């Protein structure tokens, strides 16, 4: 992609360098790209792939992008819809055999026995993609953990198999909002209707057309990419940075539509640029509009979690008091964030400090990538916010 002139990016450089250089850096690496409708505003990488700081990072280094995977899965689903393979409101329980028999967890009796009832309601792709299907990540729900212990279930949503994702719903489809593995079941739906695995479907319909040759669910099959894999770090309660491990069923995930992608900042920037430019032929403008519009029946469920109980993780980039809803894979803010993204922008993040936003109103998108746990790291959130504000200042000065 061509660059837009020669904007003054000194302040953006300074923000990134401050986090990865010096005697006590807060991050071992940081990559950031900002994109306008006319091309790249900024793109740079600082730091190292390893904590020993012996291997320089680049925009072609290989990262686990975790929940940023969800955006790709949502786009792939809309492509399948546009190909006539399925509709957003079709009952996927009639398509995916594993979803035919589901329970809803209502609580526990006095003896800690789970109280279950059969779910008879349909589940749509729209609900799976907007986290309103009733599925929830078991590691984030005490009731599901108690249920798993009661039935002796050892696989979970981070062991990388469809068996791990089979669990009771925590509410009737469409009657709430819970962050969970709906994207994985959307990916499974694509596999059934397209009669091919999700990797092949995405490669054919997204990665190859956009020249994203360094993106995959199966890095163990790409030694050329694995050689550039970025080391994951964990920030301890004392602030120290130590070596970590991807908390997912790598290297053998069955279902991977939610957190399973590995990619490079360069590839993900191409993907965001394609969406910012109206779909770039991989998805129609109508499909893009569907992706970016509010989707839940009652946004209060979303707000109560993303800007309430799970704010530190899921709503970390939203100002206090912000309102909005969830689209198909991303949060959608109802009003402008002052000095930052405009109303109706999409944003989401991945567990190890991976952030992206898409502001079609202003014609700006951005991507910040690092590799540090736990999710919601305050220094990552602060850095991302500073970078976003600086990009909007820069863009405003160029008009």
TrEMBL record:
Coiled-coil zones: none
Beta-lactamase-related domain boundaries: 31-377
Gene3D superfamilies: DD-peptidase/beta-lactamase superfamily
A GO molecular-function descriptor: hydrolase activity
InterPro entries per record: Beta-lactam-related (IPR001466), Beta-lactam/transpept-like (IPR012338), Diverse_Enzym_Activities (IPR050789)
Domain of life, source organism: Eukaryota
Keywords: Hydrolase
Keyword Hydrolase listed: yes
Keyword Calcium: no
Family membership: Belongs to the class-A beta-lactamase family.
PANTHER family membership: (LOVD), PUTATIVE (AFU_ORTHOLOGUE AFUA_5G00920)-RELATED, BETA-LACTAMASE-RELATED
Protein name: Beta-lactamase family protein
């Amino acid at each position: 992609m061509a660059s837009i002139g020669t904007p003054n990016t000194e302040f953006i450089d300074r923000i990134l360098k401050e986090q990865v250089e010096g005697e006590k850096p807060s991050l071992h690496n940081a990559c950031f790209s900002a994109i306008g409708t006319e091309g790249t505003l900024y793109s740079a990488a600082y730091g190292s792939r390893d904590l020993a700081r012996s291997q320089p990072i680049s925009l072609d280094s290989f990262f686990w992008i975790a929940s940023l995977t969800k955006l790709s899965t949502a786009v792939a689903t809309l492509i399948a819809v546009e190909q006539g393979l399925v509709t957003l409101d079709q009952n996927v329980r009639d398509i995916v055999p594993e979803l035919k028999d589901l329970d809803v967890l209502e609580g526990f009796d006095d003896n800690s026995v789970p109280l279950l009832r059969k779910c008879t309601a349909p589940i749509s792709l729209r609900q799976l993609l907007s986290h309103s299907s009733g599925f929830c990540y078991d590691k984030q729900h005490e009731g599901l953990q108690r249920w798993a212990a009661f039935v002796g279930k050892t696989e979970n949503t981070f062991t990388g198999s469809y068996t791990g994702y089979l669990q009771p719903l925590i509410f009737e489809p469409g009657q709430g909002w819970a962050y969970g593995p709906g994207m994985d079941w959307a990916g499974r739906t694509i596999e059934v209707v397209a009669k091919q695995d999700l990797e092949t479907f995405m490669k054919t319909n997204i990665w190859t057309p956009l020249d994203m040759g360094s993106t995959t669910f199966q890095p163990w099959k790409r030694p050329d990419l694995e050689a550039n894999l970025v080391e994951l770090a964990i920030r301890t309660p004392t602030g120290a940075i130590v070596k970590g491990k991807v908390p997912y069923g790598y290297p053998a995930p069955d279902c991977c539509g939610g957190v399973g992608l590995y990619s490079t900042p360069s590839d993900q920037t191409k993907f965001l640029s394609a969406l910012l430019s109206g779909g770039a032929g991989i998805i129609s403008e109508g499909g893009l509009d569907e992706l970016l519009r509010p989707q839940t029946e009652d946004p209060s469920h979303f707000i109560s979690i993303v800007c309430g109980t799970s704010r530190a993780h899921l709503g970390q980039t939203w100002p206090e008091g912000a309102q909005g809803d969830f689209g198909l894979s991303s949060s959608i803010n109802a009003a402008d964030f002052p000095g930052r993204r405009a109303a109706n922008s999409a944003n989401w993040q991945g567990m190890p400090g991976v952030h992206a936003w898409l502001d079609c109103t202003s014609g700006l998108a951005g991507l910040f990538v690092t590799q540090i746990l736990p999710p919601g790291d305050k220094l990552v959130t602060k850095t991302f916010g500073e970078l976003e504000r600086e990009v909007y200042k820069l863009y405003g000065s160029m008009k």
